[in-house]
Design goal:
Low-confidence stretches: 1-10, 141-150
GO molecular function, one term: ATP binding
Keywords: ATP-binding, Nucleotide-binding
Bound molecules: adenosine-5'-triphosphate, magnesium ion
Distance between the termini: 65 Å
CATH topology of the largest domain: Rossmann fold
Organism: Thermohalobaculum xanthum
CATH class of the largest domain: Alpha Beta
Radius of gyration: 24 Å
Mean pLDDT: 89
Protein name: AAA family ATPase
CATH architecture of the largest domain: 3-Layer(aba) Sandwich
Strand content: 15-25%
Helix content: 40-55%
Structural class: alpha/beta
CATH superfamily of the largest domain: P-loop containing nucleotide triphosphate hydrolases
Number of helices: 16
C-alpha cells in the first residue's frame, strides 16, 4: 500500500522517498531501510505521486529510491520514465533492482545514470549504495557515477599517533574528528576519519559504523585506487563524518607501501576539507608518508615511564630522518588535575627531560569515556559536559587555526 507523500507534511524532512509500486521484496526492503535510514526518515510513495514529489523535494536533503523487480514491459517503461523525470529534476537517485534480465537492466540503465543496488543480494550492497548517495549529497554533486558538479577540495591532514598502546589515541582521533565536523558543518566543509591501524583498528567500534567490504580492496589495491573506490569504502557516522574503518579481517600493516598511502591521502585531500588519520603504534615504512603529508600531527602520551621512553625514541627517529618537528603537537592524556601537586611536578620534569612543551593536557574523563567508546558514540553526543570532551573541543578549534595559519604563512613565503 502506498502511503501519501502529504501524510508526513508536518514531520521532519525525510531522507528518502521510496517508489515501490509492485516491488516483490518490499517487506524486507522496508526492514532494511528502517535499519539504515530510520523508520521515520523514509516515505513510501506511489508512481502516480511522482510529479508532485519531484517538485517538492530538495536534492541536498532527500534522495529518491526507485525499485524494479520484473521484466514486464509496462513496469520497465514506468521505471525508466521515473528515472528520466528524476534526472531532469537533478535529483539523486538510487535504483534498487530485483531479479531481472540483462535486457531489462540495459533498458533502465539507458534511461539515465543513477546509483544502483542489486537486492536482496549481495548483502550490504544497499547500505553501500545509500552511503555513496549520502557522500554525493554532502558533496553537493551528482551521484558518484557522474562527474557532474564535483568540487575539488584541498583538505588538511591531521595525524594522530599514540606513542604507547592504550594511551587514548583512537579516542582522541574520534572525538577531534567529530568536533571538527560539528564546527565546520555550517560552512559546507567535510571531514573524514581514517583508521590506518589495518590490524586492530577500533574506530568502527568507537563509532558503531559498519566495516565495508570495499575497505579490503582499498587496502590491498591502494596503488590503483580512484575516487569512487575510496568513497565506496567509507562508512558514514550520522551523515556528518565519513569514516574509513579498518578492514573486517586483520591485515599485516605492511600490506600498503608508502606510495599507496600517498595515493589514498591525495584522493582524500580532493574530497574532504579535513582528514583525521589514526595511526598504528608500530612505525612502518609508510608512517613517514603520513607524517610528511600531515599539516598537523598530534603525538599522545601519558605520564608513565613507558610513554616517556617511547616519546623520546619517536622524536629521535623523526630527527634522524630530518623530518620537520614544527607540525608536532604534544598531547598529555590523563594529565593530573589542578590539585595534584606531585602529579604536576612530574609533568614538569617529564617535559623538561624530553625537551618538549605540551600543547594540550587532557583530563581523565572517567568511566563515561569508556562507556561512550563502548556505546559507539562521540563524547559530544552522550557526555557533552565531560571534561575530556570540553578539552578536545578546544583541540579541534585550535587545529583549525593552526592549519589555517600554516597555510597563510606558506602562501606568503
Ligand atoms: N582521558 C581519558 N579518560 C578516560 N578514559 C580514557 C581517556 N582516554 C582514553 N580513555 C579510555 O582508554 C581506553 C584506551 O583508549 P584508546 O583505544 O583510544 O587508546 P589507543 O591509544 O588508541 O589504544 P591502541 O594502542 O589500542 O590503539 C579506552 O577505553 C578509552 O575509553
Ligand atoms: Mg587505537
Amino acid at each position: 500500500m502506498a502511503l501519501s507523500f502529504m501524510r508526513k507534511e508536518s514531520e521532519a524532512t525525510p531522507e528518502a522517498m521510496v517508489f515501490s509500486d509492485n516491488f516483490a521484496a518490499m517487506d524486507s526492503l522496508a526492514e532494511d531501510l528502517d535499519g539504515e535510514i530510520g523508520a521515520d526518515k523514509w516515505v513510501e510513495v506511489s508512481n502516480t505521486e511522482a510529479d508532485e514529489v519531484f517538485d517538492e523535494i530538495k536534492r541536498d536533503q532527500t534522495f529518491v529510491i526507485l525499485t524494479l523487480s520484473s521484466d514486464d514491459e509496462g513496469e520497465v517503461e514506468a521505471c525508466a520514465e521515473l528515472i528520466r523525470k528524476a534526472s531532469n529534476a537533478e535529483l539523486l537517485v538510487l535504483l534498487v533492482i530485483g531479479d531481472v534480465s540483462p535486457r531489462t537492466m540495459h533498458n533502465v540503465m539507458r534511461a539515465g545514470a543513477v546509483e544502483f543496488a542489486p537486492y536482496p543480494d549481495p548483502p550490504g550492497a544497499l547500505q553501500e549504495a545509500i552511503n555513496r548517495l549520502r557522500v554525493a549529497r554532502t558533496q553537493g554533486g551528482g551521484a558518484l557515477g557522474s562527474a557532474k558538479g564535483k568540487t575539488q577540495r584541498s583538505g588538511k591532514i591531521v595525524g594522530v599517533y599514540g606513542v604507547a598502546g592504550g594511551v587514548g589515541a583512537s579516542t582522541f582521533a574520534v572525538n577531534v574528528a567529530w568536533e571538527l565536523a560539528s564546527i565546520v558543518r555550517s560552512e559546507g566543509r567535510r571531514v573524514a576519519l581514517f583508521d590506518f591501524n589495518f590490524q586492530y583498528g577500533s574506530i568502527a567500534t568507537f563509532l558503531d559504523v559498519p566495516r565495508r567490504e570495499a575497505v579490503y580492496e582499498l587496502v590491498s589495491e591502494a596503488g590503483n585506487l580512484d575516487q569512487t573506490g575510496l568513497m565506496q569504502a567509507l562508512s558514514s557516522y550520522r551523515d556528518r563524518l565519513h569514516v574509513l574503518t579498518a578492514p573486517r579481517d586483520a591485515l599485516p600493516l605492511d600490506i600498503v607501501a608508502p606510495s599507496d598511502i600517498q595515493n589514498i591521502l591525495a584522493l582524500a585531500r580532493d574530497a574532504f576539507d579535513y582528514v583525521v588519520v589514526d595511526m598504528p603504534q608500530a612505525l612502518m615504512g609508510w608512517s613517514e608518508s603520513v607524517y610528511s603529508a600531515a599539516d598537523v600531527f598530534y603525538a599522545l602520551m601519558e605520564t608513565d615511564m613507558r610513554s616517556a621512553q617511547n616519546m623520546f625514541r619517536f622524536i629521535r627517529s623523526l630527527k634522524s630522518e630530518d623530518l620537520p618537528l614544527n607540525k608536532l603537537q604534544f598531547v598529555l592524556n590523563r594529565a593530573p588535575g589542578l590539585t595534584d601537586l606531585s602529579g604536576k611536578a612530574r609533568v614538569k620534569r617529564l617535559s623538561e627531560s624530553l625537551g618538549i612543551e605540551f600543547a594540550h593536557m587532557l583530563p581523565d574523563g572517567g568511566k563515561q569515556v569508556v562507556n561512550c567508546c563502548d556505546q559507539g558514540a562521540p563524547l559530544a553526543e552522550v557526555a557533552r559536559n565531560n571534561p575530556l570532551r570540553r578539552e578536545i573541543a578546544k583541540v579541534a578549534q585550535r587545529a583549525i587555526t593552526l592549519v589555517t595559519t600554516t597555510e597563510a604563512s606558506a602562501d606568503s613565503a
